[in-house]
Amino acid sequence: MTTTVSVKIPARILERIPKAGQGRSGFIVEALEEKLERQPASEWKSTTKRGRRLAAMLEKGKNERLPLLGEEALQRELRERRGRSA
């Protein structure tokens, strides 16, 4: 999915990037992706009491959900639950 975004770019920068129709959009997208990859992913923090309570419940139940099943184990589990032989 793509979205068109309009931004004002200083002339000193515009002069240094590819011309319209010569890869400008791709250049800008690659530059943005590169910049975002260098930033550490920020962890979600709740701002409400309810959100903090739900986050605490998720954290508390993490041990029950891990380790995650691999593809083969997941298919075996589904077959067993559906009453088919493993």
Short description:
This protein is mostly helical. Helices cover 53% and strands 0% of the residues.
Structure description:
This protein has 86 residues and is an all-alpha fold. It folds into two domains: 8-41; 49-81, no CATH class. It is 53% helix and 0% strand. It has five helices and no strands. It is elongated and about 65 Å long. It starts with 10 loop residues before the first helix and ends in a 5-residue tail after the last helix. The model has no long low-confidence stretch (mean pLDDT 89).
Topology at a glance:
Blueprint: H1 11-14, H2 24-38, H3 49-60, H4 62-65, H5 71-81
Q: What kind of oligomer do you see?
A: single chain
Number of helices: 5
H/E element string? HHHHH
Q: Quote the beta fraction.
A: under 5%
- CA gyration radius, whole angstroms: 24 Å
Share of helical residues: 40-55%
Shape: elongated
Mean pLDDT: 89
Uncertain runs are none
Number of strands: 0
State the domain count. 2
Alpha-beta classification: mainly alpha
Largest sheet geometry = none
State the end-to-end distance: 40 Å
